[in-house]
Amino acid sequence: MTSAEGDRLLEMLAALANPHRLRIVAALHARGRVYVSQLARELGISRPLLHLHLRKLEDAGLVRSEHALSPDGKALNYFEAAPFHIALTPAAIAGAVRSLSAPEKKPDP
After folding, report:
1. pLDDT digit string, tens, across residues 25-44
2. How many domains is the chain partitioned into structurally?
3. Coil, helix or strand for 94?
4. Side-chain half-sphere of 10: how many Cα atoms within 13 Å?
5. Could you give the residue ranges of the DSSP H alpha helices within 1-109?
6. Distance, CA of 3 to CA of 78 (rounded, Å)
7. Could you say which of 24, 39, 57, 99 would form a disulfide bridge with 63 (CB–CB 3.0 to 4.6 Å)?
8. HTH arsR-type domain: from which residue to which, for each copy (predicted)?
9. Residue numbers of the domain that contains 23
């Protein structure tokens, strides 16, 4: 593992540790490229809440976005699931631990 792989694994797992985000990834996997308003309607959540979750998933590299114009000239933000594979085995976790960044030290009170 490279020095950033442990940190990346933690970021991906943290992003997936939310039921809304799991539903988002599942919906994008099933539907392919979808614009935000349509995805919000399908999932029954507000666009601001959806954007919050999509940002977390995108930062973790689990989804990707693209801006495009609709036929009537409206700007649309499309999202799709990014290809990823997470293998959680004891050996993979041990390798990830060896590559973690040093934890930030908090100042003593």
Report:
1. 999 999 999 999 999 999 99
2. 1
3. helix
4. 14
5. 5-16, 19-31, 36-43, 47-59, 90-98
6. 32
7. 57
8. 1-101
9. 5-96
